[in-house]
Amino acid sequence: MSIPFGHHQLHNRYCFEGELELVTPLRISSGRASDETDAPFMRLYDGTLYVPGSSLRGAVRSEIERILASLGHAVTGLRSCTLFEKGGGGDCAEKIREFRDSLKNEEKRKEEDKDKSDDQLIAEYVKKNLCDVCLLFGSASYASRLVFEDGVFVNGRGVENHTRIRDGVGIDRDTGAAKDGAKFDYEVIEPGEKGVCVKFRMVAENIGVNGMDKKLINLILAVLKEGLFLGGKRSGGMGKVKLRPKDGNYFNVTGFESPQTLWKALVDGRQLDNPIEWKEGL
Ligand SMILES: [Zn+2]
What we know:
With 282 residues, the chain is α+β, with helices and mostly antiparallel strands. It has two domains: 13-80 and 131-275, no CATH class; 81-130, no CATH class. It contains eight helices and eleven strands. The strands form three sheets. Strands 1, 3, 7, 8, 9, 10 and 11 form a seven-stranded antiparallel beta sheet that branches. Strand 5 (163-171) and strand 6 (178-189) form a beta hairpin. Bound molecules: zinc ion. Zinc ion binds next to helix 6.
């Protein structure tokens, strides 16, 4: 059965869970100075340290785009709009913007099916024209089908013992150059000897199981196994995290693979997310 594209129906859901281990010190600053440091690590309202899903998502997406750009469509079979930026084709966000504008034009609008709403036409356009990366990760005016959840540290409050304040160099906002004598410090989390891990949870909905979505998800998992740089000072080697194997498994997958399985679980009063066997490999 082909999976209908979009968010208006729920056909399948896959939750990938595991633990990301810090390989090098991690810096993800909250952007607000505290009494202790100019750049404290991200914390929840109650002070719990955490890694925002948006940071992980951004790092994963740019790494995927980098890999696809260097291999090219012929090798991977995957389309990524960063590939075409230089050719003048425009990225997916720009394409949607142009199509949306074209709908405002009466002449142009008449060519399209009159019975369809703008939203329907845009959904059809997106399905036909967006690259594989934007279709999964989302784009301007098209929501993602892949969610990276915020991750708290596995050893809870124990991670406080791994925080350190490091000295940095102040950067002049106007010139981007190092400011003479400007003092600036930031908080990092050190891996330590026993290892520090962050809970990892990624949820994918309405994915086409045999198609490009699955290929991309397997690529994401491969990248996370290999190690990915996250947060600030990446060029200096900071923020390397990787999936940590547990009993030989790097991650668990739960969810449901069809509306029928979801319905059966609901009717039987069972939990909705059940273990799923996920086949890896690209
Ligand atoms: Zn794109």
